[in-house]
TrEMBL record:
It holds the Pfam family DEAD. This is RNA helicase. Keywords: ATP-binding, Helicase, Hydrolase, mRNA processing, mRNA splicing, Nucleotide-binding. It comes from the Eukaryota. One of its GO terms (biological process) is mRNA processing.
């Protein structure tokens, strides 16, 4: 963990941690299930572009990521960011438009990272929360993040906000994007990643920055 520096983590460093004996999140030996899932994860299209993604993320305040359904963008890019932002001491948040998506993705990512759901990886949806002081990667509905933003419009406990399925343009997502646009102008330590399988990235970028 000492080798991780915020916004300086390379794909090689992250891979070395994954290939090590102990989980850097728990300091416990990796399980056989982790090794099995890791092989599958590394075959996903997004994983082949980990270095490129990190380069862009580390030099940009806002990234728009478009990738096909099933490419691993929702499960893998969040983990890439978790490694890169771990030294910040803040949380990475990833919004989903639906409760089931938030809970199922959180469950999958916790399994992939070989951690207990509700510890380092958690979720927050209506009437159901799995999280703790240890949680560094949280999946939540866009409505839940928006509710929190009413009391904290600068998103002060987060280092990165990931808006997934942005093409659905739900009302909470559109309001969040407006709030995030304002927040990143006031915080130089906040990053925003906007993800979709079908989004017109160029058009959305112009809309976000106008």
């Amino acid at each position: 963990m000492d080798q991780l520096r915020r916004n300086q983590t390379t794909a090689e460093q992250a891979t070395a941690l994954e290939d090590g004996n102990n989980n850097f999140l728990t300091n416990k030996p990796y399980s056989a299930r982790f090794r099995e899932l890791l092989k599958q994860r590394r075959r996903l299209p997004v994983s082949a572009n980990r270095s490129r993604f990190l380069e862009l993320y580390q030099r940009s305040r806002v990234i728009i990521l478009t990738s096909d359904t099933g490419s691993g963008k929702t499960t893998q890019s969040t983990q890439f960011i978790l490694f890169d932002e771990f030294a910040s001491g803040k949380m990475v948040a990833c919004t989903q438009p639906r409760r089931l998506a938030a809970t199922s993705v959180a469950t999958r990512v916790a399994e992939e990272l070989d951690v207990e759901l509700g510890a380092q990886v958690g979720y927050n949806v209506r009437f159901d929360v799995k999280g703790s002081k240890e949680t560094r990667l949280g999946y939540m509905t866009d409505g839940k993040l928006l509710a929190g933003a009413m009391a904290d419009p600068l998103f002060s406990k987060y280092c990165c906000i990931i808006i997934d399925e942005a093409h659905e343009r739900t009302i909470p997502t559109d309001i969040l994007l407006a709030l995030l646009k304002r927040a990143i102008s006031d915080r130089d330590d906040l990053s925003v990643v906007i993800m979709s399988a079908t989004l017109d990235a160029q058009r959305f970028q112009k809309s976000f920055w106008r």
